[in-house]
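Question: what's this shape?

___
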Amino acid sequence: MMAKVALAVPCFNERGRLDVARFAQGAEQSDLQILFVDDGSTDGTADFIAEKIKDHPRLDLLRCEQNRGKSAAVREGVLHLAKERPEAEWIGFWDADLSTPIDEVRHMLEFHDLEGGRADAIWASRVMRAGSHIERRFKRHLFGRLFATAAGELLGVRAYDTQCGAKLFRREIVPAVFGEEFVSRWIFDVELYQRLGHDRILECPVLSWTDQPGSKISVFREFPQVFRDLFRIRARRLKR
């Protein structure tokens, strides 16, 4: 029997592409609880979700009054699940665009068991390998490798892929790992890495990942802010 899992799905102006039916199907097939966290959307996303999930007991909605960025939405959603879903053994977050298919949850847990079952967190990783199907635009892949190199040099991050939006955490560690607000609105994953430490994280190569259109993040527009945030995260660490 698969472990009980609850997922927070941050949403901001996702009405035009959010596939609630696929989430519902995944929740039923994999025995998941899914919490959509609306991050102050202005396009009616919250009402759209509320209407779509009203007959689905495994799906729920948390509304945030104002837009505070993905990191705040994820943090609020994960902490809410830790409090309201005591039966969940693993709590995590998942990107709303389903670039990582929801059935990767099962694969991640199986991979964790095969690797000894000792990790406190399982992070999906977009590693090209035999048998995997990874579709990623070249410029995003290039930016990802540049980011990984910078995070390694500035923050000592040794993970191959911190930014894949599919992560699971043992329920008991959630209050400590997510208790403090994040510095960055977008690259909070490296802050999670720092809080956990390398040895507590298991990177799981995904079987499938597809770059979806309509991302809220423009590689070139966000490039300067991302690197400013890396230095801000580094400065906070050095103060301690």
User: Anything to note?
Assistant: The chain has a mean pLDDT of 93. The longest strand covers residues 32-39. Residues 219-239 form the longest helix (21 residues). The helical segments are 20-30, 45-53, 70-84, 104-114, 138-155, 174-178, 188-196, 219-239.
